[in-house]
Every structure is written in structure tokens, then in C-alpha cells.
Amino acid sequence: MNYISLYNDEIKKGKIIAGKKIKTVIEKLSFFIDHPEENYITHFNGVREYFVFVPEKANIVIDFIERFCRHVKGTSFVGKPILLELWQKAMISALYGFVSADNGLRKYRKLHLYVGRKNGKTLLAACLIIFELLIGGEIGAECYTGATKQEQAKITWDMAKLIIHQNPSLEKRFSLTITGIYKKPFRDSFFKTISKESKKLDGLNAHLSHIDELHAITDTNIIDVMWDSTKSRLQPIELITTTMGIDRQSTFDEIYEYDTKVVEGVIIDERLLVFCYELDEGDDWQNINNAFKANPNLGVSQSINQLHEEIQRAISDRSKLINLLCKTLNLRQSNKHSWLSFAEFNNEKVYPLETFRNQIVIGAFDLSRTNDLTAFTTLLFDIKEHKIIAETMYWCTQKYLENNRSKVPIQKWIEQGYMRLSGIELIDYKDIISYVKEVVNLYGWRYMFINYDPYSAGYLINEFEAIGYAKEYVLKAARQGAKTLSVPLQELEANLKEGIFSYQNNPITKWCFSNVELEQDRNGNFMPIKTNYERKIDGVMTILDAYVSLVEHKYYFLNEH
Predict the structure, then answer these.
(1) Measured distance CA(513)–CA(491) in Å, rounded
(2) What CA–CA distance (Å, rounded) separates 231 from 211?
(3) Looking at the domain assignment, is residue 85 inside a domain?
(4) What is the pLDDT of residues 327-354, one digit of tens each?
(5) Residue ranges of the alpha helices (H) in 98-213?
(6) How many domains are there within the chain?
């Protein structure tokens, strides 16, 4: 069966929805099948090596997977034989079916698969590795899955073990240990994991090198080491299976952009196959029909109804949007994006501070030394109206004022009383202590908590202890990270949008809000960041640090006590 031509026909008839890159690749492969005289590689000596399509070569792989490999996850699939979809059969056919007319060796040595989550990419990789160990590979076929972290590298390896356990015919042909999967009887063909954490990356003699989730790779070293180790092999395979990811690592971008140019014909790489399932530019992500372009298994291993629900959630909650676009619709995203629009954070309400005399409050500070701002925020509470008010004071050095006078209206802010000068080149932290004493004397504020970024805060913490604030009870370190700040960030965003949070129309705080971008980690948590050193966010950070305690003790601070 010629699955490539069949896949091409189904796409052209409109029965399968595919993106431009997939169409381009499949049309090229179909052309090579029909015109083998055009399918050649010119070697350094000028000799052309021609390749022909032999479907039986690929069908051996397809038959092996469907006969011996079974599903290991999903309540409705576990234990059932894996039945490959047409797109998977076409991809396997491309990798294994084009062989040299002279010696029968495979043309393609690299397969890079970009596809949305829940489309079986890891399962397919595990099946191909098992096939290479038993049938396809050379003598002593060393197979490796590599990743930055050992846990990531083990995902495909663990899946291969489970597949082997599912079938007695496979199980009796392998020896499974905690470090590897070995082919019996000689154990010379094996499957192991390696990572950047591995003590030794040299000495490999890989037949198949696999990278799972390319976006998580922080540098190309592990990819290069594995591929370089295949040089003595006649038919090596580099297999990369990945979603787009949200970490804009240069490694991912470099490989993805290279692969794109290969698909477009800008770069000629006759040994590389690229199957990139993604939405096309301009596609409406809210139209679920377009999702098929990134999810060829939609309706098979992935529920159409569930995806529809995800899209609806992302329409109403944009915190879900980045993850949907990237992981499911397979669109390259930056994990950094603007947090709030001006309309969302703009609040011109100002409260007289005398209203909050003798109130129990929350404080927070963000320190700097030289070319940055220092800020101290006090959270005040209008309990009757259920409002939260942030009163923030800023400091900068004389040097900062001189260097940035033309960029932001620092002098005006100083004159208006929103900012104070402190030190020539270094902030004098005693000025922060003096400010706290000042507002305590003026308004009688009682700080239940004073939160802070523990980085370089030691000296000021000692100063606060010296004036009576107990480190054990009042002074609270707020570790700067998505785990700590993601929930306060969501709370603050909701309060801003509801109009219950005011920052006293402080122009510096307003400027800080306009500068905040968000970065999302792999667990879906958000962290505020600044992508430009000149665009400060210090005021917002002190508010978020204060919100760490507010979130924990919300009922106390927003109700009569």
C-alpha cells in the first residue's frame, strides 16, 4: 500500500484538513514516487545517487507496530493494538520507503515531527525505537533518548518498557533493567536515556538518537553529541518529536527555522524529513476545523468536544490562551506577553491617607543598589467599601536621576512627592527605614507583615529588626518566582479589573504596570518580568509581594477586626 499518495489524495479532496507545510512535504514526496529520476542526491564527487520508493520497506515497520505494540495509556485504549492513522503511515513510509537504487539503504536519516499534544508522538517514537532494536537497526544498535533533564529523557524510555511488558512476544526478546532495555541474547543492542546531567556524553555509538520535546532543550550540545556519534553507522536515524513549547530557547528556534526553510525549499537538505503540523498564518484559532491542521489525531486520541471546551475557556480566560495556542494548536509562542491593557490597570481614584489612621496594614519593599528603583508599598483597606489601596514611595540615586532624566520625568516625580533621592551612586537603605518611621508617626499604621524579596535584603532586614519588627513574625521573605507570585498575580489582576484596587493614581506605579510582561512556566504558572531594563516594574513587584500575605489572610484584612 502506498500511504503517501493516499494521504496526498485525501488532502487534495478535502477529506483531510492539513496545513501548508504538510501539503508541501506530501506533494514533494508524491512527486518523488512518481518521478524517481528526479529523486537523487549529488555527492561530493559529482556522482548522483538515485532513490526509489519501495512501499514494502515501510510496510514492515507499520505491520510490526500494529501487530506487536499495544496502547499503554488511556482507559479506553490500554492493552489494545496500536492502529496507526493514515498520517502516521505516510510519515513512516517516507522515512523507511525511499531507498537507494544502488544499495537499498534509506535516503532519509532525520525525521523532525512537530505536532500538538495528545497526538501520540511519544508513543510512536517508542514503537520505532523498539522496531530498530529488534529488526531495523544494525548490529549493536544503540538507541538513546536525550533531554536536558533525566526525567524528560525517561518518558519515552518508560513508555517503551510498558509496550514491551504488554506483549509476551516482545518481553521474551528483551532484558529490562533500571538503566536500559537490552536485546537478548547478546545485549549489544539497547535503549538508554542520556541528559545534560549525565556524567559522560562521549563514547556513544548511536544508531538512533531521539529528542523528545525540543523546546525543553537549552543548548544543542546533547543533540550534536548524539548525532555526531552516528557517523560510523550506515543508516542512522535522528528522531525529534515535539510540540512548539513556550520557552523561546535559541535551540528550538534555530532548528525550527532551519526545518521551515528546508520545507520551503530555501535550504536543500535531502536527508531531512520535516512533518510540521501547525495552524497556518492568519488561521482563526477559534475555528475548531483549523485545529485539525495541528492535531491529525483529533477525533481519535484527542476528543473534539474536549478541545472545543478548551477553546471556549481560552476565549473567556486569556491566561489559558498561550497554552492552547502553543501546546494544542502548535503555534510558536513566546512565554512573555503583556499583562494588562491601559484600560485594565488605569485607576485614577485617590484616597486621603488620614482615612486609614491606626490601621493594621501590610508592607513590602523592593531594593536596588545603583541603576534601578527602590520601592516601599503599604496596603491599606477600606473595609466598608471592600477596597484595597496601595500607597507606594520610590527612591533613586543621584546617578540614576542624571542618567535617566531625559527618558522618564524623574525630576517631576520627585517634585510631586512620589519619589525621593537617596545616595549618590548607592541607595542609602536608612532612607527606607526613615520613611516607615515617618508614616507610622503620621498615621499610626501598624504593620502586621512586611514582605520582601530576600535577594540582597539582609542589611535592611537587620535595620527593621532594630526598630522592633520581628523577623520571625513580621518580616516575611517572598521568594521571587512563578510558584510564589502566580496566585497573587491573578488576585491583583481580578481586583484591578473589578475596580476594587487603587494605587493612588501614582504615575510611577502606573508606569510600572504598563511595563509588566508575563512569563509562563511549564506548570502554567505566571511570573511578572521586564523585558527591557529601562522599563521598571519595581512598584508592581512590591504590590505583588504584599499580596502574598493578603491572599493568605484575605478575610482578616477585608473584614472588621
Answers:
(1) 15
(2) 18
(3) yes
(4) 899 887 655 566 887 778 889 899 999 9
(5) 121-131, 150-166, 168-171
(6) 2
